[in-house]
Amino acid sequence: MNLTIHKLPLGRNSYIDFDKSIFMKNDLQCALSHSEILLLTRLTENLGHIVRYNELLSVLYTEISVSDLQVYISRLRKKIEENPRKPKYLISIKGIGYMLTANRK
């Protein structure tokens, strides 16, 4: 699926701006790395659906392990989640992959 989304709302007063590679929340901006944008793009293309580990690993253009991917996801959650330990948007599907959801309250 080739989907072009420029801004993805996540909850109240927050969104991912893919064009600027930033996450905005309450007028505060947080820069997103190139790898984080690649992961978020693939997750957004499959919004609400599980994206398997191997598919996410393939978008990073480098040889990394699933445990390395988990580190990337952890860092990303610290940026986009209110409580990274209890994520609302970037959900782990144990043993399979991750799913991105939007506008959950």
From TrEMBL:
InterPro entries found in the cross-reference section: OmpR/PhoB-type_DNA-bd, Sig_transdc_resp-reg_C-effctor, WH-like_DNA-bd_sf
GO biological process: phosphorelay signal transduction system; regulation of DNA-templated transcription
DNA-binding region as annotated in the record: 5-102
Alphabetical list of SUPFAM superfamilies matching this protein: C-terminal effector domain of the bipartite response regulators
OmpR/PhoB-type domain sequence ranges: 5-102
A GO molecular-function descriptor: DNA binding
Domain of life: Bacteria
Keyword terms, alphabetized: DNA-binding, Transcription, Transcription regulation
One Pfam family cited in the UniProt record for this chain: Trans_reg_C
Keyword set includes Transcription regulation: yes
Protein name: Winged helix family transcriptional regulator
Organism lineage string: Bacteria, Bacillati, Bacillota, Bacilli, Bacillales
